[in-house]
């Protein structure tokens, strides 16, 4: 929304609704408000990445001031299940090894990007109303990979600035995000990539993890966030009052908002550098693998200052 007055009215109207999102029933009633189907046309395949326009990418380039870079990907080690395709002797003449490494990208270990074909809406359809057969291809990760994700990113360092700290299973509410942004003296812009640090990293698990409360879905939409990332999977779990939408940023954020999610980012070095510079905005570049039909891809996001 270009008109500041209209944006203010929109936010004020949604504020009471935001406060009411305390259970599955209330979230189900809010789905029409959250839904972005048709927002960018009937053939849209990018969802909220549409907020990240070419002009905003040019503007984001101003974030590059020192050239300092930080990887936001976790280090992944080869385990005992690592399989060599052939032996070293078989490739002696070529002076090398040829490896095959298999991995499940979804879950709570690898840093990866979820595509918009990852989760269905309640109707069984995918984002923007695509059926499964059509959406499997049209919403796959290669549509994002075709252009990559580059733009301005903002770290919301909840673990550092929330007075009460963050504990396992803790839900982070919209007022927490506002509070941290104020302490960081950071303002969000339309199209920003948002990275939320819980500080728990690999301690976030399938059964207990800190993350965003479902009421933050409206906050994300209000602020026109283009992509959401975290050092967990963005969802708090378990959350009182929520069962059907217990992983709301996946079960609602992906199919209804069209919001790509970056899971399991490594944010510790980023947090330390941002704190040392008193600066929480940076240029980010993300290049998923170009695989048609895939619902995710391992990634190595790079923050550039």
Please summarize what this structure is.
This is Kynurenine formamidase. The chain is of the alpha/beta class and 305 residues long.
Question: Which key terms come to mind for this protein?
Answer:
15% strand, Glucose Oxidase, domain 1, globular, 305 residues, alpha/beta
Give a written overview of the molecule.
This protein is an alpha/beta fold and 305 residues long. The protein has a single domain (17-75, 104-304), classed as Putative cyclase (Glucose Oxidase, domain 1). Helices cover 29% and strands 15% of the residues. The chain has a 9-stranded mixed sheet, with helices on both faces. A two-stranded antiparallel sheet has the order 2-3. A two-stranded parallel ribbon has the order 6-8. Helix 1 (4-20) packs antiparallel against helix 8. It starts with a helix and ends with a strand.
The CATH architecture is 3-Layer(bba) Sandwich
Question: Strand sequence of the main sheet, in spatial order?
Answer: 1-13-11-5-7-9-10-4-12
CATH class: Alpha Beta
Strand content: 5-15%
Low-confidence stretches: none
Report on the biggest sheet.
9 strands, mixed
Question: Given the structure, what is the number of helices?
Answer: 11
Do you know the CATH topology? Glucose Oxidase, domain 1
Extended strand count: 13
SSE ordering: HHHEEEEHHEHEHEEHEHHEHEEE
Distance between the termini: 28 Å
Helix share bin: 25-40%
- Mean pLDDT, as a whole number? 90
Which value, in Å, is the CA radius of gyration? 20 Å
Using the alpha-carbon principal axes, give the shape: globular
Query: What structural class is derived from the secondary structure elements?
Result: alpha/beta
Task: Give the CATH H-level superfamily.
Answer: Putative cyclase
Signal peptide: 1-21
Organism: Marinoscillum furvescens DSM 4134
Keywords: Signal
InterPro entries: KFase/CYL, KFase_sf
């Amino acid at each position: 929304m270009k008109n500041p007055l209209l944006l203010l009215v929109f936010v004020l109207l949604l504020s009471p609704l935001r406060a009411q999102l305390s259970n599955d029933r209330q979230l189900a009633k809010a789905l029409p408000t959250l839904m972005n189907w048709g927002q960018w046309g009937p053939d849209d395949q990018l969802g909220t990445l549409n907020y990240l326009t070419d002009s905003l990418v040019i503007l984001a380039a101003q974030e590059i001031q020192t050239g300092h870079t930080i990887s936001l990907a976790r280090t992944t080690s080869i385990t005992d299940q690592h399989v060599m395709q052939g032996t070293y002797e078989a490739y002696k003449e070529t002076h090398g090894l040829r490896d095959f490494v298999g991995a499940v990208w979804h879950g709570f270990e690898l840093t990866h990007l979820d595509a918009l074909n990852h989760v269905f809406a309640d109707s069984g359809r995918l984002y923007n109303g695509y059926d499964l057969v059509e959406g499997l291809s049209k919403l796959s990760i290669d549509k994002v990979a075709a252009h990559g994700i580059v733009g301005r990113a903002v770290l919301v360092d909840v673990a550092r600035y929330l007075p009460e700290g963050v504990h396992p299973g803790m839900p982070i509410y919209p007022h927490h995000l506002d509070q941290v942004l104020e302490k960081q003296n950071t303002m969000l812009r339309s199209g920003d990539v948002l990275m939320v640090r819980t500080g728990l990293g690999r301690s976030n698990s399938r059964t207990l993890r800190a993350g965003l409360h479902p009421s933050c879905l409206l906050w994300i939409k209000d602020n026109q966030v283009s992509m959401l990332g975290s050092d967990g999977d963005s969802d708090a779990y378990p959350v009182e009052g929520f069962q059907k939408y217990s992983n709301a940023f996946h079960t609602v954020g992906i199919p209804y908002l069209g919001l790509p999610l970056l899971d399991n980012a490594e944010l510790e070095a980023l947090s330390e550098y941002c704190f040392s510079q008193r600066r929480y905005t940076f240029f980010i570049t993300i290049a998923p693998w170009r695989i048609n039909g895939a619902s995710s891809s391992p990634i190595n996001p790079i923050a550039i200052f």
